[in-house]
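Recap for those who missed Tuesday's class. We walked through two folding examples back to back. For each one, the amino acid string is listed first and its predicted structure tokens come directly after. Nothing is annotated here on purpose, so try labeling regions yourself before you check the end of the notes.
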Amino acid sequence: MQTTILITSPDRWQPPGLELFDFAPVYPGGPAWLTKPVLIVLLSSVIVIAVCWAAFARPALVPRGWQSLGEYCYTFVREQIARPSLGKDSDRWMGLLLTIFLTVLVWNLMGIVPVVQFPVAAHIAFPLVLALSVYVIKVYLGVRHHGVRGYLRGIVYLPGLPGWAYAFYAPLILAEVFINSLFTHFVRLFANMFAGHLLLAFFSSVGFWFIFERLTPLGAGLGVLGVLMTIALTALEMFIQFLQAYLFAMLAAMFIASGLHGSH
């Protein structure tokens, strides 16, 4: 449950705001880049590596424990994310897609882990870097397999479209493939985690203030409402966190497929 609170006056409740996303170095005088989100990213990487190692380092014929969990995740990513877009090329890209899915999922779930309580994707730099990595792979595959001219032609060509219409259509579809797709990839994830974190912080601060800080007969009901809303939103947020990890990995598979096939 989110418990981050901003109190600027001892007698007045103040709702949390953008200061939730502004982090100082983890220790005084430390480098500016070494902040809480960076530590969470490192911790998330350790968790993903540890889970995959525990699941696949010594596979047994009959999966149990961590191997069962690992195989379930692998099957889900292969069947629901990789194969719909990549088809016969799915297995070649499973390592990357599984890593992306698990990484984003752990990033998101950090928002509801006690003490940590910050979804890394709510800091725009991290989903941007991940999306840029997929973007570079997409463009590289497109140029490598089809050449610059062939790749651009595959993107722009639309059967039956009159020649004069390409003057309007080509700039739009090129902007979609090379600009809009990148932004939609990371902004969707960032916006959902940002808004979810802010909402949880808001309602939990209401509950904390009106129950623990300034308990009054009139404020008690508002405090209880804040607690109940925090619990309900935490459950909803868990679903959204999984959904956003799925969508991010699914878009990654679609973009990789577009590079391989030379189309949009």
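Example two. Treat it independently of the first, because the proteins are unrelated.
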Amino acid sequence: MPRRYVMCPPRHFAVDYAINPWMDPNAPVDPALALRQWGELRDTYRRLGHLVDEVEPQPGLPDMVFAANSGTVVDGRVLGSRFATRERAAEAEHFRRWFVENGFRDVTMPREVNEAEGDFAWTGRVLLAGTGFRTDPRAHAEAQEVLGVPVVSLKLLDPRYYHLDTALFVLSEATDDRAAHVAYYPEAFSPGSRRALERLFPDAVLADAADASCLGLNAVSDGRNVVLPVEAGALAEKVAAHGYEPVFVDISELRKAGGGPKCCTMEIRK
């Protein structure tokens, strides 16, 4: 099915600070290359038949390109974000304004820290909610109240996989006659969360350390096409074996800030 995505061009992209293990302010960054890679990702979505809206980037907010962290939308209801780090805090208001200016009427800004689709993954029936590094576990209950959907909490253990979307993605959402299908990296999760995932998704695609280390799980699936980093060849073979079509993109420059295809992509679900 055609999807609607929200993205933000990295016209002010830089790595000026370190708020996750992927970021090194002393390493060289090529902003022009980051912008080209982002443009190729956007154009890939459009070639696949999806609608992409763009939010205007703001000076002084180099991570605003990672639009997934600024809103969660289910059935037209919007839960905004509240960032854990001061460096990104101002992004939330710019995205709130975008929602209001684009006709969204049911917009709630959270009281608790939540980094939106960075830590929230909609499966069609339940919202998987990560915690451990960014999103406050109290935000999971807030998301349930605001969005009106059941929430399953999952604890992350490895600081390299500081958001849920670096360790898990939804391959296909649940329908009336089909369960949701996900891919994830088991070692990123606490033992209890791992057992919960095994119960919920017994046929999940399990990624290995190499898949995870290139942010291969920071992928976007429309239920058929799976857009993922070009380095994630082993993961691509696994999802292809389940009938999906891997679509490779190069996000090497954006990965220097700890992001990949999903980080750049917020989904609008109405």
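Answers for example two:
The CA atoms of residues 74 and 148 lie 9 Å apart.
The longest helix spans residues 31-47.
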